[in-house]
Prior knowledge:
By secondary structure, the protein is of the alpha+beta class. The chain folds into 2 domains: about 20-170 and about 230-320, BirA Bifunctional Protein, domain 2 (2-Layer Sandwich), CATH 3.30.930.10; about 330-440, 3-Layer(aba) Sandwich (Rossmann fold). It has 17 helices and 16 strands. It has helices at about 20-35, 50-55, 60-65, 85-95, 140-155, 175-190, 195-205, 205-210, 215-220, 235-250, 295, 310-320, 340-355, 365-375, 385-390, 415-420, 425-449; strands spanning about 40, 45-50, 70, 80, 105-115, 125-135, 165-170, 255, 265-275, 280-290, 305-310, 330-335, 360, 380-385, 395-400, 405-410. The strands form 3 sheets. Strands 1-5-6-11-10-9-7-8 form an 8-stranded mixed β-sheet. A 5-stranded mixed β-sheet has the order 13-12-14-15-16, sandwiched between helices. Strand 12 (about 330-335), helix 13 (about 340-355) and strand 13 form a beta-alpha-beta unit. The chain is elongated. The relative contact order is 0.11.
Amino acid sequence: MAQALLQPARGTHDLIGEEYRRHLHVIETARRVATLYGFEEWATPIFEDTRVFARGLGDTSDVVSKEMYSFEDRGGESITLRPENTAGVCRALVSNGLTQANLPRKVFYAGPMFRYERPQKGRYRQFHQIGIEVLGAAEPLADAEVIACGWHIQQELGIDEGTVLEINTLGDAASRDAYRAALIAYFTAHKDQLSEDSQARLEKNPLRIVDSKDPRDKALVAEAPTIHDHLTPEAAEFYAAVKSYLTIFGVPFRENPRIVRGLDYYSHTAFEFVTDRLGAQGTVMGGGRYNGLVEEMGGPPTPSVGWAAGVERLSLLLEAAELTPEAPRPVAIIPAGGDTAEAAALSVLQALRERGVVAEIAYKGNLKRRMERANRIKAGAAVILGEAEIAAGTATVRNLDAGTQETVPLEELIRALAATGASESAMQALMAEMLEAEEDAGDEGDEER
């Protein structure tokens, strides 16, 4: 009896081929751009003490109450697979004694997160995020730079025309207290029209009602007070500075007074990059300022700001824009003869790889079969080594796109492959050789002087 075919666990998926190339391209592009902005990469554990997230996300949040993968390990400790990484980064800052020296810390991260929620397009139970955090900076310029970095990443990916930045302010503590009182008064007058969840939130956390997705709540939220009528002069000045810096950085935005964050340690800037290119409007990157989270982890007051973005959703935007990176086209090394030809081919194969050229060789087969495999793997060029070429110290280079070929000395092989235009890696290797030769020539000139 045949065994049942095993499938990925619900809410997970395999990253293979084009999908993985898009996934990796998002992370590598984000990493490269974040480096330009002075961010260093940190890697925190995939699982943490459950209290890290209970403190960081709030006991009443949906993530903590409904979506976390928590379990008791063999030592009786409550462990949680990370549902997000901001709390973990803040914990790492405190755990490693970094709260007093060299602030601000500018951190980039990338990796898998885990939430038990209903799987749908672009949303999985194991998903991946990129994110940045500036830890220990109270200035509005930090908020604007964080947002500008996120916009720059989207520009480099080529998806910026498909996303829109929406921003809001949550004000300072005094602003939020006044706003909370106004919301309680407004929603209390319409309490019987609220959803059950929002009725429960009314006294405890009315700001979360503003972010409700329930249609009954949305109708009321549309007429609810906004925080802009309750900002202190200092909070209004901070928000104006952020918008001014964004304009200088060349980041377009629109204001959305309905962007809120339910936890008390969030303050001032809140923002989301949204898109409607994946069906209903959704967030692909979001974040804001959080001035109390490091304290929740046992550290001193440490004003911070950051964002996180879903790699899967950014990858879907790449796919929709037909921006999937091409797989590197290898050079096929083809021995045409017996053991002597194969030994020579293996030497050439490894020499090309050591110079940075993507190269492959079929494990078996005659000349015809090896050429067929070269076409299957979409090789751009083939290097054929037969008895005659080995004796003469040459190789036959065939351009598989143009169907042309030439015989060249082995020492000219990389130059010949680059000239075919069929191997980008060969062109890069040639440029590296030329640069190295120029540097050597410069060193010799210095010695003569």
